[in-house]
Each structure stands twice: as C-alpha cells, then as structure tokens.
C-alpha cells in the first residue's frame, strides 16, 4: 500500500540518484520474489530500504556522505548507552580484495560487458592480485559500471572496522543504514563514524539492542581513475556527392 511509503525519503533518494546519473535498466519478470528484486536494486545503487520504527513507514536511504558528524547520535563508554562492545576488528590489508570486475548490460547494444578496476597500492601491499567479480545487470553504461566498481573497490580496500555493540533502549529508533558516532575510551576510540548494518531489537523486558556496524565509507564516486576509451569509428557521409571521375564525349545519334 502506498500509504506505508515514506514519500519524502524516496523523493530525496530519487534526487540523489538523478544528480549522480544513476539510472538502471532492469526488468522484474515476476518469476523471482519482489524482496529479492528490491535487494538487487539496493545492491546496484548502494542504498538500504527499511521500516522506520517511529513512523511505521518504509524509508529509502542511500549510503552517501549526506550527514553532519556533529549532529549524529553518539554512543559510547562514557555515555552509559553502550552495555557491551562485543567485537571490534579490522581486516588485514594483505588479505583485502584489491581488484573488482563488474559485469553490466550495455543499453545501446544489449550485450554484456565488463570493466575492471584495481587499487595498485593494495596490490603492492599484499604482493598479489585478489580479485572479486560482481554482476550488476541493471547498469546500462560503461561509465556507470566503472564508477560502481570503484565504489565497491573503495569499500573492500579501506580496511574498515567491523563493530558489534550491545545498546540499551536509547537505540530504539535506529534502522539499518543509519549513521552513528561511537566512542570507546578504554581502547582510544573517539567519535568513530559507524554505519548500522543490522539490528536485533531484542525484547522490551530484556531491554538490550544488538547492532552490527561497519566503519562508514561513502558511496558512488563522482569520478574514477579509469576512463572509457573513445571509439575510433567515424560515421560515413551518406549524402549524395558529385562524381570525381568525369568523361565528356559526343553521344552518337
């Protein structure tokens, strides 16, 4: 029912995607569930769809640099709203994916193409190429595929911290995709920006909320170091032209 959609969030997300030139050419053939199709769309555009627990409306939230750190809700050891930090880990640079290949569908030809981007510093750090292939059939152009590949590569090679926290009920309004500040002075962590990945709201009688977070990295880059090669083909001139071979002679009767 359209009444359960948060129109403001969908409109804001549409404006963001339009400004980025992020348009998809994708068909839902109804053979798959709508839930899986929505997940495919979210993976393409780097966004999260979730129900706002304070309004009951479904919100669409692009994962972008669209917030002011000072205004984010803060959780930490000194604030009393974090009951436990269950996990804090950061992936090793030597094991990080440093090459991403994205498959896309060229809207002009209808054929499947692929682009590859690398983080050369990460390749040197690990001493080898660690590749990841991703299929984004809804991307219609090579330029968009390159930018999306760069987005994924940045997330893979940034060495982002993964954090699991146990909160009190002050985190009741959080939904996946939200951004928070996290401080944990015993480990020297101060105002780290985290993106909420998943939430277990627990029960009211228990009063504990478990969240999985990832250190925030921003979405679709505006540019990439890989450029689309210009075509060398020149369209031929099909207009009528005067012949350069001319022979003049008197025609016989």
Average pLDDT, all residues: 87
* Count of strand segments: 11
Could you say which overall geometry the principal axes of the C-alpha atoms support? elongated
CA radius of gyration is: 26 Å
The helicity comes to 10-25%
Give the DSSP E fraction (strand runs of 2 or more residues).
25-35%
Describe the structure.
The structure is a single chain. The chain is α+β, with helices and mostly antiparallel strands and 253 residues long. It contains four helices and eleven strands. The chain has helices at residues 7-20, 34-45, 120-126, 142-157, and strands at 47-51, 58-62, 74-76, 82-90, 99-105, 112-118, 131-135, 161-167, 179-184, 189-200, 209-215. A six-stranded mixed beta sheet has the order 3-9-10-11-8-4, with no helix packed on it. The protein is elongated and about 115 Å long. The chain starts with 6 loop residues before the first helix and ends in a 38-residue tail after the last strand. Residues 219-224 have low confidence and may be disordered.
């Amino acid at each position: 029912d359209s009444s359960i959609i948060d129109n403001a969030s969908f409109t804001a997300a549409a404006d963001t995607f339009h400004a980025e030139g992020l348009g998809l050419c994708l068909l839902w053939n109804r053979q798959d569930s709508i839930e899986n199709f929505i997940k495919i769309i979210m993976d393409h555009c780097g966004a999260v769809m979730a129900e706002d627990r304070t309004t009951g409306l479904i919100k669409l939230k692009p994962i972008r640099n669209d917030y002011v750190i000072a205004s984010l809700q803060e959780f930490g050891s000194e604030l009393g709203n974090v009951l436990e930090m269950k996990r804090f880990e950061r992936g090793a640079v030597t094991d990080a994916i440093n090459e991403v290949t994205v498959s896309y569908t060229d809207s002009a030809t209808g054929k499947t193409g692929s682009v590859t981007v690398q983080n050369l510093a990460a390749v040197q750090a690990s001493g080898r190429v660690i590749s990841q292939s991703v299929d984004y059939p809804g991307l219609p152009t090579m330029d968009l595929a390159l930018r999306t590949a760069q987005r994924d590569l940045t997330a893979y090679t940034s060495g982002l911290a993964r954090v699991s926290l146990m909160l009190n009920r002050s985190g009741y309004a959080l939904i996946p995709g939200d951004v928070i500040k996290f401080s944990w002075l015993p480990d020297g962590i101060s105002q780290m920006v985290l993106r909420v990945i998943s939430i277990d709201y627990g029960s009211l009688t228990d009063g504990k909320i478990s969240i999985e977070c990832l250190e925030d990295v921003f979405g679709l880059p505006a540019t990439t170091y890989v450029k689309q090669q210009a075509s060398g083909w020149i369209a031929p001139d099909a207009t009528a032209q005067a012949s350069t071979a001319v022979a003049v002679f008197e025609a016989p009767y």
